[in-house]
Amino acid sequence: MHQNLQTMKNALLFLFSILVFSSCSDDDQGTTPDVQQNDPTLLAMAVFNPGATNETHWKFDDDGILTDITSANGTVLKHFEYDSQGRLTQANFFGTTPENFVFTYDSNNRIASVNGMVFTYNTTSGTYIQDFEDPIVGAEFDYFDRYEFNVDASGRLVSEVGIYLSSDGNYDTAGANAAYQNANTVSLWSYGGDSSEGYTYDSHNNPLKAATDAIRRAFAVTHFGSYHDKFLGGMYSSGNNPVTQHYASEDPESHEFEYEYNANGLPFSCVLKNFYLGNPDGQAQYINYYYQGDVQP
After folding, report:
1. Which of 22, 186, 286, 295 would you call most buried, defined as having the most Cβ atoms within 10 angstroms of its Cβ?
2. Residue 15's pLDDT band (boundaries 50, 70, 90)?
3. CA angle at residue 221 from 195 to 122, to 5 degrees?
4. Which residues contact 260 (CB under 8 A, 6 or more apart)?
5. Rounded CA gap, 71 and 44, in Å?
6. Could you give the percent of the chain with pLDDT greater than 70?
7. Strand partners, 124
């Protein structure tokens, strides 16, 4: 009996040693799952206006996609959520005038609704239509009928127009407009909204573009007339980094952007230089970029 018990103990010890050795071997071979590897080409954080009263922190997920904009003390100013296909599904803007947006998409990957307001898409013209279905125009009143948002093949806003019905004849009002060269926004203008502005660019990749593409695509059909609210500014909407920014010809102000680049050719520092009537008018640190694996503030 004693010999049988000893034999059983030896067998159990042998089995245990095999299991322990197998586990250690798996660890030694680096098969431990769920270890996030840093990608030095993807943003983890960007600090805008560091040290200034309007300092903001842009925070990005493991895929380098923008999820939050906070103040320097961590207060969330804007929050973004995405689905499994990387499409923006929800945006929350906090502060004195809070706004919330919920986006849905159809089976063709086009925007179907924003906050329950349904959009139709004209495949021929590349136009999203938001129809308010107002009643027949009376003798003394004008009625707002619909918005039309024209986008390019990648979903970037090209132009937008509001259509009115009137007893004196139909008319429209233009909103935000954008012009592009390849992946870059070269000019923006708006009637009754922002003034016009334009950009020139360097030859380096802009990490902020991919980080905000889904936001820009969804917000193309919101905030009529305001291209900055649509994330169309050249600093984050373009494939390259802007080096100059100018306004309408009568505007005396302009800007230059000076970058330092890391070993991957990506910017890690941007200095904003201001000009008035072509003369220097001060400068300040504008953006500090932090990539995955970098030490963050």
Report:
1. 286
2. very low
3. 120
4. 267, 268, 269
5. 16
6. 83
7. none
Residue 176 confidence (pLDDT) above 50: yes
Q: How far apart are CA 68 and CA 94, in angstroms?
A: 11
Share above pLDDT 90 across residues of the chain, in percent, rounded to a whole number: 73
Q: Characterise 135 by phi-psi region: left (phi > 0), alpha (psi -120 to 50), beta (else).
A: beta
266: amino acid identity, one letter: L
Q: Which two tokens stand for residue 10?
A: 């030896």
Identify residue 61 by its one-letter amino acid code: D
Contact of 70 with 57, CB cutoff 8 Å: yes
Count Cβ atoms below 10 Å from residue 244 Cβ, excluding itself: 15
Residue type, 25: S
Instruction: Please count the other Cβ atoms lying within 10 Å of the Cβ belonging to residue 281.
Output: 14
Question: Which residue has 């695509």 as its token pair?
Answer: 217
- In this prediction, residue 166 carries a pLDDT of 76
Residue 74: is its pLDDT beyond 90? Answer: yes
The number of C-alpha atoms within 13 Å of 60 and in the hemisphere containing its C-beta is 27
Domains, the chain: 44-291 (2.40.160)
Q: Mean pLDDT of all residues in the chain?
A: 88
Residue 20 has pLDDT above 50, yes or no: no
Q: How many whole angstroms from its chain centre is CA 25?
A: 43
Give dist(CA 143, CA 166) in Å, integer: 6
- The CA radius of gyration of the chain, in Å to the nearest whole number, is 27
User: What local confidence, expressed as pLDDT, does residue 17 receive?
Assistant: 46
- Which spans in the chain are helix H? 2-28, 207-219, 234-237
Residue type, 265: G
Q: 234-261 pLDDT, tens per residue? A: 999 999 999 999 998 889 999 999 999 9
Comparing CA positions, the residue from 231, 204, 217, 155 lying closest to residue 41 is 204
Contacts of 116 (CB under 8 A, 6+ apart): 102
For 90, list phi and psi in degrees, rounded to 5: -150, 140
